[in-house]
Amino acid sequence: MKRYKFPQQCKSALAATIISLLLASCAGQKTVSTTKKPTTAVSSVSQTDKAPQSARDYLDLAKGLDAAEAIPLMVTAAELLSGEAQHRKALWLANQISPLLVTTAGSLTDTGKLKDQYRLFITKATSLQALAYHQLALEQLTLADSLTKEHQLHHQLAYYRQLAKVQQSRELAVDAADAALRAFVIDDFASNDDVFALWQSLSDLSQWQLKQLEQLNPPYIKGWQQLLSFAFQFGDNPPQFNRYLSQWQRKFSEHPALAIIDSLKTAERDSKTIENIAVLLPLSGKQAAAGNAAQQGLLAAYQNNDAVSLHFIDTNTLDMSALVLTFNEQTIDFVIGPLLKPHVQAYLAQEELQVPTLLLNVPDEQVLKPHQVALSMRPEDEAIQAASSLSRRNYQFPVVLSHQDKVSTRIARAFADQWLKMTGNSPEVVPFEQGKRMQTDLTASLDVGLSKSRIKDLKRRVKQTLKTETRNRRDVDMIYLVGSPKQTKLLKPYIDVNISPFAEVIPVFASSRSHSALNDRSDTRDLTGLTFSEMPWLLESKQQNKQLAQMSQQLWPQRSDGLQRIFAMGYDSFALATKIAAMQANPFVRHFGQTGVLKLNGNNILTRSLIWGRYRKDKVQEIAMD
Protein backbone atom coordinates (compact mmCIF):
# COMPACT_ATOMS: atom_id res chain seq x y z
CA MET A 1 0.00 0.00 0.00
CA LYS A 2 1.38 3.39 -1.00
CA ARG A 3 2.23 5.64 1.92
CA TYR A 4 1.49 9.38 1.91
CA LYS A 5 3.15 11.96 4.11
CA PHE A 6 0.89 14.87 5.01
CA PRO A 7 2.48 18.30 5.48
CA GLN A 8 2.37 19.37 9.13
CA GLN A 9 0.01 22.26 8.36
CA CYS A 10 -2.46 19.88 6.69
CA LYS A 11 -2.27 17.48 9.65
CA SER A 12 -3.00 20.27 12.11
CA ALA A 13 -5.97 21.49 10.05
CA LEU A 14 -7.35 17.97 9.73
CA ALA A 15 -6.96 17.37 13.45
CA ALA A 16 -8.75 20.61 14.27
CA THR A 17 -11.58 19.73 11.90
CA ILE A 18 -11.98 16.26 13.37
CA ILE A 19 -12.06 17.60 16.92
CA SER A 20 -14.60 20.26 16.00
CA LEU A 21 -16.88 17.75 14.27
CA LEU A 22 -16.85 15.31 17.19
CA LEU A 23 -17.30 18.02 19.80
CA ALA A 24 -20.23 19.36 17.81
CA SER A 25 -21.66 15.85 17.73
CA CYS A 26 -21.27 15.55 21.49
CA ALA A 27 -22.83 18.97 22.02
CA GLY A 28 -25.79 17.92 19.94
CA GLN A 29 -26.77 15.24 22.42
CA LYS A 30 -29.79 16.08 24.53
CA THR A 31 -29.26 16.57 28.26
CA VAL A 32 -31.83 16.96 30.99
CA SER A 33 -31.30 19.78 33.51
CA THR A 34 -33.71 21.31 36.03
CA THR A 35 -31.81 24.61 36.34
CA LYS A 36 -29.57 26.67 34.10
CA LYS A 37 -26.37 28.10 35.47
CA PRO A 38 -24.49 30.83 33.63
CA THR A 39 -21.00 29.99 32.50
CA THR A 40 -18.42 32.16 34.24
CA ALA A 41 -14.73 32.71 33.82
CA VAL A 42 -14.15 31.12 37.21
CA SER A 43 -15.97 27.90 36.30
CA SER A 44 -14.06 27.78 33.02
CA VAL A 45 -10.77 27.93 34.82
CA SER A 46 -11.78 25.24 37.28
CA GLN A 47 -12.78 22.95 34.40
CA THR A 48 -9.43 23.56 32.73
CA ASP A 49 -7.49 22.77 35.90
CA LYS A 50 -9.46 19.57 36.41
CA ALA A 51 -7.72 16.35 35.26
CA PRO A 52 -9.26 15.05 31.99
CA GLN A 53 -11.55 12.08 32.50
CA SER A 54 -13.97 11.76 29.58
CA ALA A 55 -13.47 11.61 25.82
CA ARG A 56 -14.80 15.18 25.57
CA ASP A 57 -12.19 16.35 28.11
CA TYR A 58 -9.37 14.99 25.95
CA LEU A 59 -10.83 16.48 22.79
CA ASP A 60 -11.10 19.85 24.54
CA LEU A 61 -7.42 19.59 25.50
CA ALA A 62 -6.47 18.76 21.91
CA LYS A 63 -8.11 21.92 20.53
CA GLY A 64 -5.56 24.44 19.35
CA LEU A 65 -2.62 22.02 19.52
CA ASP A 66 -0.64 20.99 16.48
CA ALA A 67 -1.19 17.48 15.09
CA ALA A 68 1.81 15.91 16.83
CA GLU A 69 0.48 16.95 20.25
CA ALA A 70 -3.22 16.50 19.45
CA ILE A 71 -3.10 12.98 18.00
CA PRO A 72 -2.19 11.11 21.25
CA LEU A 73 -5.00 12.96 23.04
CA MET A 74 -7.43 12.05 20.24
CA VAL A 75 -6.35 8.41 20.42
CA THR A 76 -7.12 8.43 24.15
CA ALA A 77 -10.48 10.04 23.41
CA ALA A 78 -11.30 7.24 20.95
CA GLU A 79 -10.40 4.65 23.61
CA LEU A 80 -12.63 6.38 26.15
CA LEU A 81 -15.52 6.61 23.69
CA SER A 82 -15.28 2.86 23.24
CA GLY A 83 -15.13 2.42 27.01
CA GLU A 84 -18.23 4.61 27.33
CA ALA A 85 -20.05 2.26 24.90
CA GLN A 86 -20.16 4.96 22.21
CA HIS A 87 -18.76 2.48 19.75
CA ARG A 88 -19.84 4.10 16.48
CA LYS A 89 -18.29 7.43 17.51
CA ALA A 90 -15.14 5.62 18.64
CA LEU A 91 -14.88 3.91 15.25
CA TRP A 92 -15.47 7.16 13.39
CA LEU A 93 -12.82 9.01 15.39
CA ALA A 94 -10.29 6.17 15.09
CA ASN A 95 -10.81 6.02 11.34
CA GLN A 96 -10.26 9.80 11.07
CA ILE A 97 -7.06 9.68 13.13
CA SER A 98 -5.45 6.79 11.21
CA PRO A 99 -4.53 8.84 8.08
CA LEU A 100 -2.82 11.43 10.29
CA LEU A 101 -0.45 8.74 11.57
CA VAL A 102 0.67 7.60 8.11
CA THR A 103 4.33 8.44 7.73
CA THR A 104 7.53 6.95 6.43
CA ALA A 105 8.58 3.91 8.47
CA GLY A 106 11.90 3.22 10.07
CA SER A 107 12.64 6.42 11.93
CA LEU A 108 13.30 6.20 15.65
CA THR A 109 10.98 9.16 16.17
CA ASP A 110 8.09 7.05 14.86
CA THR A 111 7.88 4.88 18.00
CA GLY A 112 5.16 7.00 19.56
CA LYS A 113 3.15 7.01 16.34
CA LEU A 114 3.46 3.24 16.05
CA LYS A 115 2.13 2.82 19.57
CA ASP A 116 -0.74 5.21 18.77
CA GLN A 117 -1.55 3.18 15.66
CA TYR A 118 -1.49 -0.01 17.75
CA ARG A 119 -3.92 1.57 20.22
CA LEU A 120 -6.22 2.54 17.36
CA PHE A 121 -6.28 -1.04 16.06
CA ILE A 122 -7.34 -2.26 19.51
CA THR A 123 -9.98 0.48 19.83
CA LYS A 124 -11.44 -0.41 16.42
CA ALA A 125 -11.44 -4.11 17.31
CA THR A 126 -13.16 -3.42 20.63
CA SER A 127 -15.93 -1.35 19.04
CA LEU A 128 -16.41 -3.71 16.08
CA GLN A 129 -16.68 -6.66 18.47
CA ALA A 130 -19.24 -4.79 20.58
CA LEU A 131 -21.24 -4.11 17.40
CA ALA A 132 -21.09 -7.86 16.52
CA TYR A 133 -18.73 -7.45 13.55
CA HIS A 134 -16.53 -10.30 14.74
CA GLN A 135 -14.58 -10.93 11.53
CA LEU A 136 -13.81 -7.23 11.07
CA ALA A 137 -12.69 -7.06 14.70
CA LEU A 138 -10.34 -9.97 14.08
CA GLU A 139 -8.88 -8.18 11.05
CA GLN A 140 -8.00 -5.18 13.23
CA LEU A 141 -6.34 -7.45 15.78
CA THR A 142 -4.41 -9.14 12.98
CA LEU A 143 -3.13 -5.72 11.89
CA ALA A 144 -2.07 -5.02 15.48
CA ASP A 145 -0.23 -8.33 15.61
CA SER A 146 1.55 -7.61 12.31
CA LEU A 147 2.59 -4.20 13.65
CA THR A 148 4.16 -5.72 16.76
CA LYS A 149 6.07 -8.31 14.74
CA GLU A 150 7.31 -5.79 12.18
CA HIS A 151 8.52 -3.28 14.75
CA GLN A 152 9.34 -5.57 17.70
CA LEU A 153 6.68 -4.16 19.98
CA HIS A 154 5.07 -6.05 22.85
CA HIS A 155 1.38 -6.86 22.94
CA GLN A 156 -0.67 -5.05 25.57
CA LEU A 157 -3.22 -6.62 27.89
CA ALA A 158 -6.10 -5.07 25.91
CA TYR A 159 -5.03 -6.97 22.79
CA TYR A 160 -5.22 -10.41 24.40
CA ARG A 161 -8.45 -9.62 26.23
CA GLN A 162 -10.11 -8.49 23.04
CA LEU A 163 -8.71 -11.43 21.07
CA ALA A 164 -10.19 -13.85 23.62
CA LYS A 165 -13.62 -12.21 23.23
CA VAL A 166 -13.49 -12.21 19.43
CA GLN A 167 -12.43 -15.86 19.17
CA GLN A 168 -15.08 -16.90 21.69
CA SER A 169 -17.70 -15.11 19.59
CA ARG A 170 -16.40 -16.96 16.52
CA GLU A 171 -16.80 -20.25 18.45
CA LEU A 172 -13.05 -20.95 18.35
CA ALA A 173 -12.61 -22.06 21.94
CA VAL A 174 -8.95 -23.11 21.59
CA ASP A 175 -7.81 -19.72 20.30
CA ALA A 176 -9.95 -17.94 22.89
CA ALA A 177 -8.36 -19.98 25.70
CA ASP A 178 -4.86 -19.32 24.34
CA ALA A 179 -5.50 -15.56 24.32
CA ALA A 180 -7.01 -15.65 27.82
CA LEU A 181 -3.95 -17.47 29.20
CA ARG A 182 -1.62 -14.91 27.65
CA ALA A 183 -3.71 -12.05 29.02
CA PHE A 184 -3.58 -13.50 32.52
CA VAL A 185 0.22 -13.47 32.81
CA ILE A 186 0.54 -9.76 31.93
CA ASP A 187 -2.42 -8.62 34.04
CA ASP A 188 -0.97 -6.98 37.15
CA PHE A 189 -4.38 -7.02 38.80
CA ALA A 190 -5.36 -10.64 38.07
CA SER A 191 -7.36 -12.17 40.91
CA ASN A 192 -8.54 -15.57 42.06
CA ASP A 193 -11.77 -14.91 40.16
CA ASP A 194 -9.71 -14.71 36.97
CA VAL A 195 -8.13 -18.06 37.78
CA PHE A 196 -11.60 -19.58 38.22
CA ALA A 197 -12.67 -18.09 34.87
CA LEU A 198 -9.64 -19.67 33.20
CA TRP A 199 -10.45 -23.02 34.78
CA GLN A 200 -14.03 -22.85 33.54
CA SER A 201 -13.00 -22.13 29.97
CA LEU A 202 -10.21 -24.72 29.93
CA SER A 203 -12.25 -27.49 31.54
CA ASP A 204 -14.91 -26.97 28.87
CA LEU A 205 -12.51 -28.00 26.10
CA SER A 206 -12.81 -31.37 24.40
CA GLN A 207 -9.88 -33.75 24.51
CA TRP A 208 -8.80 -32.85 20.96
CA GLN A 209 -9.14 -29.14 21.69
CA LEU A 210 -6.89 -29.45 24.75
CA LYS A 211 -4.22 -31.14 22.63
CA GLN A 212 -4.40 -28.32 20.11
CA LEU A 213 -4.04 -25.77 22.92
CA GLU A 214 -0.91 -27.56 24.14
CA GLN A 215 0.62 -27.12 20.67
CA LEU A 216 0.08 -23.35 20.89
CA ASN A 217 2.17 -23.45 24.09
CA PRO A 218 0.57 -20.63 26.12
CA PRO A 219 2.04 -19.72 29.54
CA TYR A 220 1.70 -22.30 32.33
CA ILE A 221 0.16 -24.83 29.92
CA LYS A 222 2.01 -27.85 31.35
CA GLY A 223 0.49 -27.33 34.79
CA TRP A 224 -2.96 -26.66 33.35
CA GLN A 225 -2.72 -29.73 31.12
CA GLN A 226 -1.77 -32.01 33.99
CA LEU A 227 -4.54 -30.62 36.20
CA LEU A 228 -7.11 -31.06 33.43
CA SER A 229 -5.91 -34.58 32.71
CA PHE A 230 -6.47 -35.55 36.36
CA ALA A 231 -9.90 -33.88 36.35
CA PHE A 232 -10.95 -35.54 33.08
CA GLN A 233 -9.95 -39.03 34.20
CA PHE A 234 -10.61 -39.07 37.94
CA GLY A 235 -13.12 -36.27 38.58
CA ASP A 236 -15.95 -38.76 39.16
CA ASN A 237 -14.02 -40.47 41.96
CA PRO A 238 -13.51 -37.87 44.76
CA PRO A 239 -11.02 -39.82 46.94
CA GLN A 240 -8.81 -40.68 43.96
CA PHE A 241 -9.15 -37.19 42.46
CA ASN A 242 -8.18 -35.57 45.78
CA ARG A 243 -4.99 -37.68 45.95
CA TYR A 244 -4.02 -36.59 42.44
CA LEU A 245 -4.73 -32.96 43.32
CA SER A 246 -2.34 -33.19 46.27
CA GLN A 247 0.26 -34.71 43.95
CA TRP A 248 -0.28 -31.84 41.50
CA GLN A 249 0.17 -29.26 44.29
CA ARG A 250 3.59 -30.65 45.14
CA LYS A 251 4.74 -30.70 41.51
CA PHE A 252 3.42 -27.27 40.47
CA SER A 253 3.98 -25.25 43.63
CA GLU A 254 4.30 -21.95 41.71
CA HIS A 255 1.36 -22.40 39.35
CA PRO A 256 -1.50 -19.83 39.46
CA ALA A 257 -4.09 -22.65 39.58
CA LEU A 258 -3.03 -23.33 43.19
CA ALA A 259 -5.66 -20.74 44.07
CA ILE A 260 -8.48 -23.11 43.06
CA ILE A 261 -7.14 -26.50 44.15
CA ASP A 262 -8.92 -26.52 47.51
CA SER A 263 -12.24 -25.74 45.82
CA LEU A 264 -11.76 -28.69 43.44
CA LYS A 265 -11.24 -31.13 46.27
CA THR A 266 -14.61 -32.70 46.94
CA ALA A 267 -16.22 -35.03 49.41
CA GLU A 268 -17.96 -38.25 48.47
CA ARG A 269 -21.15 -37.60 46.52
CA ASP A 270 -24.47 -38.97 47.73
CA SER A 271 -25.47 -40.43 44.39
CA LYS A 272 -28.61 -42.43 43.83
CA THR A 273 -27.95 -46.16 43.55
CA ILE A 274 -28.93 -47.64 40.19
CA GLU A 275 -30.37 -51.13 40.51
CA ASN A 276 -32.73 -51.50 37.54
CA ILE A 277 -31.92 -50.26 34.05
CA ALA A 278 -34.45 -50.37 31.22
CA VAL A 279 -32.86 -50.77 27.77
CA LEU A 280 -35.04 -49.72 24.82
CA LEU A 281 -33.78 -51.25 21.56
CA PRO A 282 -35.24 -52.53 18.25
CA LEU A 283 -34.92 -56.27 18.89
CA SER A 284 -37.20 -57.32 16.02
CA GLY A 285 -37.98 -56.13 12.49
CA LYS A 286 -35.64 -54.60 9.90
CA GLN A 287 -33.33 -52.93 12.43
CA ALA A 288 -33.02 -55.94 14.73
CA ALA A 289 -29.35 -56.38 13.78
CA ALA A 290 -28.57 -52.89 15.11
CA GLY A 291 -30.55 -53.54 18.28
CA ASN A 292 -28.81 -56.88 18.83
CA ALA A 293 -25.37 -55.28 18.36
CA ALA A 294 -26.15 -52.62 20.98
CA GLN A 295 -27.54 -55.30 23.31
CA GLN A 296 -24.39 -57.42 22.94
CA GLY A 297 -22.22 -54.37 23.69
CA LEU A 298 -24.22 -53.69 26.84
CA LEU A 299 -23.98 -57.28 27.99
CA ALA A 300 -20.22 -57.28 27.36
CA ALA A 301 -19.89 -54.33 29.76
CA TYR A 302 -22.48 -55.71 32.18
CA GLN A 303 -20.69 -59.05 32.85
CA ASN A 304 -23.51 -60.35 35.05
CA ASN A 305 -23.20 -57.50 37.55
CA ASP A 306 -25.07 -58.69 40.64
CA ALA A 307 -25.85 -55.15 41.78
CA VAL A 308 -27.72 -54.16 38.61
CA SER A 309 -30.55 -55.75 36.62
CA LEU A 310 -31.03 -55.05 32.91
CA HIS A 311 -34.56 -55.04 31.45
CA PHE A 312 -34.51 -55.23 27.64
CA ILE A 313 -37.60 -53.86 25.89
CA ASP A 314 -38.25 -54.19 22.15
CA THR A 315 -39.17 -50.73 20.83
CA ASN A 316 -40.74 -52.24 17.70
CA THR A 317 -43.45 -53.89 19.80
CA LEU A 318 -43.64 -51.27 22.53
CA ASP A 319 -46.57 -49.03 23.37
CA MET A 320 -44.75 -45.88 24.52
CA SER A 321 -47.79 -44.62 26.41
CA ALA A 322 -47.53 -47.65 28.72
CA LEU A 323 -43.91 -46.97 29.73
CA VAL A 324 -44.74 -45.07 32.91
CA LEU A 325 -46.66 -48.06 34.25
CA THR A 326 -43.96 -50.50 33.09
CA PHE A 327 -41.18 -48.47 34.72
CA ASN A 328 -43.13 -48.23 37.97
CA GLU A 329 -43.75 -51.98 38.05
CA GLN A 330 -40.08 -52.77 37.43
CA THR A 331 -38.81 -49.91 39.67
CA ILE A 332 -36.61 -48.59 36.85
CA ASP A 333 -33.87 -46.21 38.04
CA PHE A 334 -32.31 -45.45 34.65
CA VAL A 335 -33.14 -45.81 30.94
CA ILE A 336 -30.74 -46.52 28.06
CA GLY A 337 -32.19 -45.86 24.60
CA PRO A 338 -34.11 -45.70 22.38
CA LEU A 339 -31.69 -46.22 19.50
CA LEU A 340 -33.66 -45.28 16.37
CA LYS A 341 -34.56 -41.63 15.85
CA PRO A 342 -38.35 -42.17 15.38
CA HIS A 343 -38.43 -44.07 18.67
CA VAL A 344 -36.45 -41.28 20.35
CA GLN A 345 -39.02 -38.74 19.16
CA ALA A 346 -41.88 -40.91 20.43
CA TYR A 347 -40.13 -41.45 23.79
CA LEU A 348 -39.54 -37.72 24.35
CA ALA A 349 -43.20 -37.05 23.60
CA GLN A 350 -44.11 -38.87 26.83
CA GLU A 351 -44.05 -35.86 29.14
CA GLU A 352 -44.81 -37.92 32.27
CA LEU A 353 -41.54 -39.86 32.03
CA GLN A 354 -39.11 -38.43 34.60
CA VAL A 355 -36.63 -41.32 34.80
CA PRO A 356 -32.97 -40.36 34.08
CA THR A 357 -32.32 -41.37 30.47
CA LEU A 358 -29.37 -41.85 28.14
CA LEU A 359 -30.69 -41.58 24.57
CA LEU A 360 -28.66 -43.42 21.93
CA ASN A 361 -29.57 -40.92 19.24
CA VAL A 362 -29.86 -37.13 19.12
CA PRO A 363 -33.38 -35.73 18.56
CA ASP A 364 -33.87 -33.33 15.67
CA GLU A 365 -35.73 -30.57 17.46
CA GLN A 366 -36.72 -31.32 21.03
CA VAL A 367 -34.76 -29.62 23.79
CA LEU A 368 -33.58 -32.19 26.31
CA LYS A 369 -34.73 -31.91 29.91
CA PRO A 370 -32.23 -31.98 32.80
CA HIS A 371 -32.77 -35.72 33.35
CA GLN A 372 -32.24 -36.54 29.65
CA VAL A 373 -28.85 -36.94 27.97
CA ALA A 374 -28.14 -37.97 24.37
CA LEU A 375 -25.02 -39.69 23.02
CA SER A 376 -24.05 -38.08 19.73
CA MET A 377 -22.49 -40.17 16.96
CA ARG A 378 -23.08 -37.43 14.37
CA PRO A 379 -20.47 -37.56 11.58
CA GLU A 380 -20.53 -33.75 11.41
CA ASP A 381 -18.76 -33.59 14.80
CA GLU A 382 -15.96 -35.69 13.35
CA ALA A 383 -15.64 -33.34 10.36
CA ILE A 384 -15.38 -30.32 12.67
CA GLN A 385 -12.55 -31.97 14.61
CA ALA A 386 -10.78 -32.88 11.35
CA ALA A 387 -11.05 -29.37 9.88
CA SER A 388 -9.83 -27.80 13.13
CA SER A 389 -6.85 -30.14 13.33
CA LEU A 390 -5.81 -29.97 9.67
CA SER A 391 -6.18 -26.19 9.38
CA ARG A 392 -3.50 -25.82 12.07
CA ARG A 393 -1.00 -27.79 10.00
CA ASN A 394 -0.42 -24.94 7.53
CA TYR A 395 -2.42 -26.40 4.66
CA GLN A 396 -3.62 -23.52 2.50
CA PHE A 397 -5.59 -25.00 -0.41
CA PRO A 398 -7.58 -28.10 0.50
CA VAL A 399 -9.97 -29.91 -1.81
CA VAL A 400 -12.86 -31.87 -0.34
CA LEU A 401 -13.80 -34.91 -2.44
CA SER A 402 -17.26 -36.03 -1.40
CA HIS A 403 -19.63 -38.71 -2.60
CA GLN A 404 -23.08 -37.34 -3.40
CA ASP A 405 -25.09 -39.18 -0.75
CA LYS A 406 -26.81 -37.29 2.09
CA VAL A 407 -24.45 -38.25 4.90
CA SER A 408 -21.28 -37.55 2.88
CA THR A 409 -22.70 -34.18 1.81
CA ARG A 410 -23.37 -33.26 5.45
CA ILE A 411 -19.82 -34.22 6.42
CA ALA A 412 -18.31 -32.24 3.54
CA ARG A 413 -20.39 -29.16 4.40
CA ALA A 414 -19.43 -29.34 8.10
CA PHE A 415 -15.74 -29.65 7.16
CA ALA A 416 -15.92 -26.71 4.74
CA ASP A 417 -17.80 -24.49 7.23
CA GLN A 418 -15.28 -25.18 10.01
CA TRP A 419 -12.35 -24.59 7.64
CA LEU A 420 -13.81 -21.22 6.68
CA LYS A 421 -14.25 -20.33 10.34
CA MET A 422 -10.66 -21.30 11.15
CA THR A 423 -8.89 -19.74 8.16
CA GLY A 424 -11.25 -17.26 6.51
CA ASN A 425 -11.03 -19.26 3.26
CA SER A 426 -13.52 -21.72 1.79
CA PRO A 427 -12.10 -25.03 0.54
CA GLU A 428 -13.17 -26.30 -2.85
CA VAL A 429 -15.77 -29.07 -2.54
CA VAL A 430 -15.80 -31.52 -5.45
CA PRO A 431 -18.70 -34.02 -5.50
CA PHE A 432 -18.21 -37.35 -7.24
CA GLU A 433 -20.66 -39.98 -8.42
CA GLN A 434 -20.59 -43.73 -7.97
CA GLY A 435 -19.31 -45.89 -10.84
CA LYS A 436 -17.34 -44.94 -13.93
CA ARG A 437 -17.78 -41.19 -13.43
CA MET A 438 -15.94 -41.36 -10.09
CA GLN A 439 -12.48 -41.36 -11.67
CA THR A 440 -13.54 -38.78 -14.26
CA ASP A 441 -14.66 -36.42 -11.50
CA LEU A 442 -11.35 -36.89 -9.71
CA THR A 443 -9.15 -36.15 -12.75
CA ALA A 444 -11.28 -33.09 -13.46
CA SER A 445 -10.79 -31.79 -9.90
CA LEU A 446 -7.01 -32.12 -10.27
CA ASP A 447 -7.02 -30.64 -13.81
CA VAL A 448 -5.38 -33.82 -15.09
CA GLY A 449 -7.87 -33.96 -17.97
CA LEU A 450 -6.78 -30.49 -19.12
CA SER A 451 -3.16 -31.59 -19.01
CA LYS A 452 -3.94 -34.63 -21.15
CA SER A 453 -5.75 -32.42 -23.65
CA ARG A 454 -2.73 -30.12 -23.89
CA ILE A 455 -0.41 -33.10 -24.45
CA LYS A 456 -2.69 -34.50 -27.14
CA ASP A 457 -2.82 -31.12 -28.90
CA LEU A 458 0.98 -30.76 -28.71
CA LYS A 459 1.52 -34.21 -30.20
CA ARG A 460 -0.83 -33.34 -33.04
CA ARG A 461 1.13 -30.18 -33.82
CA VAL A 462 4.66 -31.60 -33.42
CA LYS A 463 5.36 -34.43 -35.83
CA GLN A 464 7.91 -36.09 -33.54
CA THR A 465 7.87 -38.69 -30.82
CA LEU A 466 7.52 -36.93 -27.49
CA LYS A 467 8.01 -38.28 -23.97
CA THR A 468 5.30 -36.65 -21.82
CA GLU A 469 3.94 -36.71 -18.29
CA THR A 470 0.57 -35.35 -17.24
CA ARG A 471 0.65 -32.42 -14.86
CA ASN A 472 -1.81 -31.99 -11.98
CA ARG A 473 -2.81 -28.60 -10.60
CA ARG A 474 -0.30 -27.18 -8.13
CA ASP A 475 -2.58 -25.08 -5.95
CA VAL A 476 -3.88 -28.11 -4.00
CA ASP A 477 -1.85 -29.12 -0.94
CA MET A 478 -4.32 -31.42 0.83
CA ILE A 479 -7.31 -33.62 0.02
CA TYR A 480 -10.09 -34.55 2.45
CA LEU A 481 -11.96 -37.58 1.17
CA VAL A 482 -15.52 -38.38 2.21
CA GLY A 483 -16.72 -41.72 0.92
CA SER A 484 -17.26 -45.38 1.69
CA PRO A 485 -14.37 -47.84 2.22
CA LYS A 486 -14.99 -49.28 -1.25
CA GLN A 487 -14.93 -45.85 -2.89
CA THR A 488 -11.82 -44.87 -0.94
CA LYS A 489 -10.01 -48.04 -1.99
CA LEU A 490 -10.66 -47.12 -5.62
CA LEU A 491 -9.94 -43.39 -5.32
CA LYS A 492 -6.78 -43.35 -3.16
CA PRO A 493 -4.54 -45.18 -5.66
CA TYR A 494 -6.09 -43.19 -8.51
CA ILE A 495 -5.14 -39.97 -6.70
CA ASP A 496 -1.59 -41.28 -6.32
CA VAL A 497 -1.13 -42.14 -10.00
CA ASN A 498 -2.52 -38.79 -11.12
CA ILE A 499 0.05 -36.79 -9.16
CA SER A 500 2.90 -35.74 -11.44
CA PRO A 501 6.23 -37.48 -10.77
CA PHE A 502 7.87 -34.04 -10.45
CA ALA A 503 5.20 -32.67 -8.08
CA GLU A 504 5.02 -32.96 -4.32
CA VAL A 505 2.81 -35.72 -2.93
CA ILE A 506 -0.63 -34.44 -1.92
CA PRO A 507 -1.56 -35.90 1.49
CA VAL A 508 -4.99 -37.51 1.67
CA PHE A 509 -7.11 -37.44 4.84
CA ALA A 510 -10.49 -39.03 5.41
CA SER A 511 -13.36 -39.46 7.82
CA SER A 512 -14.11 -42.74 9.55
CA ARG A 513 -16.53 -43.54 6.72
CA SER A 514 -13.48 -44.36 4.60
CA HIS A 515 -12.08 -46.83 7.13
CA SER A 516 -13.14 -50.44 7.47
CA ALA A 517 -11.85 -52.83 10.11
CA LEU A 518 -12.56 -55.60 7.59
CA ASN A 519 -10.19 -53.94 5.11
CA ASP A 520 -7.46 -53.87 7.75
CA ARG A 521 -7.27 -57.65 7.58
CA SER A 522 -6.87 -57.69 3.78
CA ASP A 523 -4.43 -56.13 1.33
CA THR A 524 -4.19 -52.44 2.24
CA ARG A 525 -1.19 -51.41 0.12
CA ASP A 526 -3.42 -49.29 -2.12
CA LEU A 527 -4.37 -47.21 0.93
CA THR A 528 -0.79 -46.49 2.05
CA GLY A 529 -0.49 -42.95 3.36
CA LEU A 530 -4.21 -42.44 3.96
CA THR A 531 -4.85 -40.76 7.35
CA PHE A 532 -8.28 -40.98 8.92
CA SER A 533 -10.14 -40.24 12.16
CA GLU A 534 -11.76 -43.12 14.02
CA MET A 535 -13.18 -44.30 17.33
CA PRO A 536 -10.76 -46.32 19.54
CA TRP A 537 -12.84 -49.50 19.18
CA LEU A 538 -12.07 -49.80 15.45
CA LEU A 539 -8.40 -48.87 15.60
CA GLU A 540 -5.67 -50.69 17.47
CA SER A 541 -4.72 -48.03 19.98
CA LYS A 542 -3.91 -47.29 23.60
CA GLN A 543 -7.55 -46.66 24.36
CA GLN A 544 -8.90 -49.78 22.66
CA ASN A 545 -10.09 -52.64 24.87
CA LYS A 546 -7.89 -55.17 23.11
CA GLN A 547 -9.11 -58.24 24.96
CA LEU A 548 -12.72 -57.43 24.16
CA ALA A 549 -11.81 -56.56 20.56
CA GLN A 550 -10.20 -59.98 20.07
CA MET A 551 -13.21 -61.75 21.60
CA SER A 552 -15.58 -59.74 19.38
CA GLN A 553 -13.55 -60.69 16.31
CA GLN A 554 -13.79 -64.37 17.22
CA LEU A 555 -17.55 -64.22 17.83
CA TRP A 556 -18.52 -61.97 14.91
CA PRO A 557 -15.70 -62.06 12.33
CA GLN A 558 -17.85 -60.63 9.50
CA ARG A 559 -19.76 -57.99 11.48
CA SER A 560 -20.09 -54.76 9.48
CA ASP A 561 -18.34 -51.58 10.55
CA GLY A 562 -21.68 -49.89 11.25
CA LEU A 563 -22.73 -52.66 13.64
CA GLN A 564 -19.28 -52.57 15.26
CA ARG A 565 -19.83 -48.89 16.06
CA ILE A 566 -23.23 -49.62 17.56
CA PHE A 567 -21.68 -52.42 19.65
CA ALA A 568 -19.13 -49.92 21.02
CA MET A 569 -21.91 -47.44 21.77
CA GLY A 570 -23.80 -50.12 23.72
CA TYR A 571 -20.63 -50.99 25.61
CA ASP A 572 -19.99 -47.35 26.63
CA SER A 573 -23.61 -46.71 27.58
CA PHE A 574 -23.49 -49.11 30.53
CA ALA A 575 -20.62 -47.24 32.20
CA LEU A 576 -22.27 -43.90 31.38
CA ALA A 577 -25.40 -44.89 33.29
CA THR A 578 -23.53 -44.49 36.58
CA LYS A 579 -21.26 -41.65 35.39
CA ILE A 580 -23.67 -39.10 33.93
CA ALA A 581 -24.66 -37.69 37.33
CA ALA A 582 -20.98 -36.92 38.04
CA MET A 583 -20.60 -35.35 34.58
CA GLN A 584 -23.59 -33.10 35.23
CA ALA A 585 -22.32 -32.09 38.68
CA ASN A 586 -18.74 -31.50 37.45
CA PRO A 587 -18.58 -30.73 33.71
CA PHE A 588 -14.85 -31.44 33.65
CA VAL A 589 -15.48 -35.18 34.08
CA ARG A 590 -14.87 -37.22 30.91
CA HIS A 591 -15.51 -40.81 29.91
CA PHE A 592 -12.65 -42.50 28.08
CA GLY A 593 -14.70 -45.03 26.14
CA GLN A 594 -14.56 -47.21 23.06
CA THR A 595 -16.51 -44.65 21.02
CA GLY A 596 -14.06 -41.88 21.97
CA VAL A 597 -13.43 -39.51 24.86
CA LEU A 598 -16.93 -38.35 25.79
CA LYS A 599 -17.75 -34.87 27.10
CA LEU A 600 -21.14 -33.59 28.25
CA ASN A 601 -21.91 -30.16 26.82
CA GLY A 602 -24.38 -27.53 28.00
CA ASN A 603 -27.19 -28.97 25.88
CA ASN A 604 -26.95 -32.35 27.59
CA ILE A 605 -25.35 -33.86 24.48
CA LEU A 606 -22.37 -36.20 24.85
CA THR A 607 -19.85 -35.37 22.12
CA ARG A 608 -16.79 -37.39 21.18
CA SER A 609 -13.09 -36.78 20.63
CA LEU A 610 -11.73 -39.28 18.12
CA ILE A 611 -8.23 -40.55 17.45
CA TRP A 612 -6.30 -40.78 14.16
CA GLY A 613 -4.88 -43.70 12.22
CA ARG A 614 -2.73 -44.08 9.11
CA TYR A 615 -2.23 -46.89 6.62
CA ARG A 616 1.42 -47.91 6.33
CA LYS A 617 1.92 -50.61 3.70
CA ASP A 618 0.47 -53.73 5.31
CA LYS A 619 -0.76 -52.31 8.64
CA VAL A 620 -2.69 -49.49 10.28
CA GLN A 621 -1.16 -47.44 13.08
CA GLU A 622 -2.50 -44.91 15.53
CA ILE A 623 -0.82 -41.52 15.07
CA ALA A 624 -0.85 -38.20 16.95
CA MET A 625 -2.56 -35.43 15.00
CA ASP A 626 -4.19 -33.03 17.47
Automatic annotation (TrEMBL):
Organism: Thalassomonas haliotis
Endpoints of the signal sequence: 1-27
PROSITE patterns in the record: PROKAR_LIPOPROTEIN
Protein name stated in the entry: Penicillin-binding protein activator
Superkingdom of this protein's organism: Bacteria
Keywords: Membrane, Signal
Pfam families named among the record's database cross-references: LppC
PANTHER family: PENICILLIN-BINDING PROTEIN ACTIVATOR LPOA
